[in-house]
Fold this protein.
Amino acid sequence: MSDTFDHSGLPEDELLAAEYALGVLDGLDRATAEQRIARDRGFARQVEAWEQRLAPWAAEIPEMLPAPHVWDRIAGALPPQTPRSGLWQSLAFWRGFSLAAGALAAACIAALVYFGAFMQPEPLVATIEGGGQRHFVATIDVKRGTVAIVPAAFRADATRVPELWLIPPDGRPRPVGLLRADAPVTLTLSGDLAGLAKNNAVLAVSLEPPGGSTTGLPTGPVIGTGKLTNL
Amino acid sequence: MTWLIAIARNRSIDRLRASRTSRNMEAIDVAADVADTTPRADVALESVQEHAKLHGCLEGLASHEHAALRGAFFDGSTYEDLATRMKVPLGTMKSWIRRAMFKLKACLEQ
């Protein structure tokens, strides 16, 4: 793709990165670019380079001090036991936040492996079916805290993406992650989710806008469900 | 700093897009005036030089290209908004912006 040139002279990938950084993309195009930033490191770097090129322009935006109550509300929204303030003010900290989140997930897996040694959990499987069709087959590796989803007869939708939900007995769907129509996907179950992935919990797949549901609950139609059972 | 600006802009753009039906847009040349009359706002920036360089490169663009980029950056306008406001077909606006981005990059890398 990167060798396709628009008449502008920039490779197509870089054009998209520039358009995203400038902010001229609308709706679906913007969401698609965002998804690509999350997936494609090289593309993300191109976006970053363009953001850097344009950043000096922001100096022309007049400075505005937020009202004092804004900080009070932010402080109120933070978890009660905040780490030392230096950390919260450090840009490097926020930059590393996603890394840290990844490390936390890894730690959760490690914890699962550790406890798994005592409990010897069996893998869980579910067939996600709906409308008389088998859409996906899911296998949960309880020990590692991962769920592998293989598409069966799922047909891709150009405008929406399939998202996986875990529904424990309390009936509230928890988002697990986005699926692909054309390839198996392995998702990591975060700490809470891993504990809820048990016999008789239900997996469901809904169709969501690119990037997935932003509300934390399914927003599109649920196309299939399946009960988890021990293998 | 760059990173923070990018996050702030992207969040704002998403907000704007979400509430776009309620927006009233001024004519495009108003944006140019507002930003240009801001006195010495760049003093606050870490690198005044970078700002000067970007400015120099922007000055080198055709005036319609410069106006389109300004509209996109400062108002968060989409291709469609810009095309409507500058009264040109969408395809033309796309070529303007793309061409301008190409020139801008080439100039900044000099």
